[in-house]
Amino acid sequence: xxxxxxxxxxxxxxxxxxxxxxxxxxxxxxxxxxxxxxxxxxxxxxxxxxxxxxxxxxxxxxxxxxxxxxxxxxxxxxxxxxxxxxxxxxxxxxxxxxxxxxxxxxxxxxxxxxxxxxxxxxxxxxxxxxxxxxxxxxxxxxxxxxxxxxxxxxxxxxxxxxxxxxxxxxxxxxxxxxxxxxx
Length: 183
What we know:
Elements: H1 2-19, H2 48-56, H3 58-61, H4 65-101, H5 107-138, H6 141-149, H7 162-179
Helix pairs in contact: 4-5
């Protein structure tokens, strides 16, 4: 009985070890952020998170059906553009990897491909920022205030980074300090 158990464990471990290399279709190369290249752009909606947040608080924000339809259209258009841009970036990354392995490829061509891949990455980010701003533009100023009060605006300030949010908060503090009468 114990021989069967040991044999079963050896077969299970051997199968797992043989199957592991196929899990990394791209050879397990890393992008420098701890993710494999296939991780980026997979299933992450550019504007889906914001749309879900808006729709889950539709009553509290006071969205009408026309606004909901417009928000869904903006989100769908952004997702389409984001998926295309992400695919372009992934193709460019794969081409770059192939160029790097080819000893005949000259450095200027590799440098151009690196710049191309970076421009695709920037394009993906710009699409996301534009989508968030377009979605906020659908809301009235009162609805925008309600939406931000629900906790969305603290991290996602119109698609900007945390540094953008902190610099904006710093300027708000400076304005309130200068507006306070001394005395």
